[in-house]
Fold this protein.
Amino acid sequence: MIKLPQVDASRPSATSIARAIRGGTLTSQEVVRSCLERAANSEPNLRAWNSLNASSALSQAQQRDREAPRGLLHGVPVAIKDLSDTADCRTSYGSSAYANHRPLMDAACVAALRAAGAVILGKTATVEFGATRPCKTTNPHNSEHTPGGSSAGSAAVVADHQVPLATGTQTGGSIIRPASFCGVVGFKPTYGRVSPAGTKSYAWSLDTIGGFANSVADVSLLFDVLRGAKEACVDQEWGAPRVGLFWGPFAEVATAPALDTLTRVVSACERNGATVREITASGAFADSLNWQRTISQYEMGRSLLAEMLAFTMDELGADLHREIESGQALQEVDYLRAKAAGAILAAELDGLFSDIDVLLTLSTPGEAPRGLHSTGDATFCLSWSLAGMPTLNLRAGTGPQGLPLGVQLVGARHRDEALLRFAAWVEHVILSI
């Protein structure tokens, strides 16, 4: 592996790589070759790539080294979740039914990355259509445990330091959960902040594009590019935040180590000057899980109808076939009721941010479960996805099985930049514990 300036070579930082390439002390080809080498060494065990496009990536890197900087990620390698279309690489959406599918053009998020000068390294493994059947990827900390899903491959390759940035999508918990299980920063923006055009969707009211990195600074840079910014967001001086501690109505499903980790983070925030107050869940919050699932299932039944008609049950998988049928059987009146209730909950949650800056809660009930038959419990993610709120996972500790434990920060809708700034503050606090 090459030695990257100002950063451990085994833990490449997108921010440092971009700066070094722009300054002429590092080439994109050097970085890409290093990433490809690590990916090749890890892939037999991690199984995180659906398509690792080495020749194309090296060709892109050569072109970046010949030209003037295009944008914020010039020459920086990025992995793409295999739900987003790529014109130069097959896109299977995690399904054998699309094994040989080659889109005509890039998804909007991929186009934004290319416009910023990023090098697309390949397509990461995903749960089929981001919905049901788990993919082949293992947890980079212990291959007998799930990496989470649906953005399993993206979280895993970032955690394994194969690539500094990767895209992901979230309908329920598909960014925050694998970020927690794999021990990386995962960021889901406010619903609608990033264009979903060209990314396979099954729940149009919920699906949101975000991504993974190993620091808040890097995931902030990724968000700048995905939203079309030409310059990185310049941070102002921010003091310690007003934190709302949210145990929620689901604390009983959390493990003792996860709860202890959240308590330690809260105490560290207070020691560093944050004001903390507990936030009580409204009575409707417990029902929000069912509302999210109703919306997701109803929309899946309509979004994936074409696949059910075009492909056999063997090609799609019996579980997905049943999910689509179940979604079709849901009544529109129940769907609209869930949508209305979700909108009321979102307005209630917006009101909390009149006197707090960020909510702090759990990302998952605990460490990644053993086995690859399930992607784990998304209980602590579903309500925020329903409300369309921006959320971010930070690694905050290690559980008794030696696997990561995360905490989740939740921000006010459309105040993503503020959430990222406060998350950087909390990240610094966690590193000092």
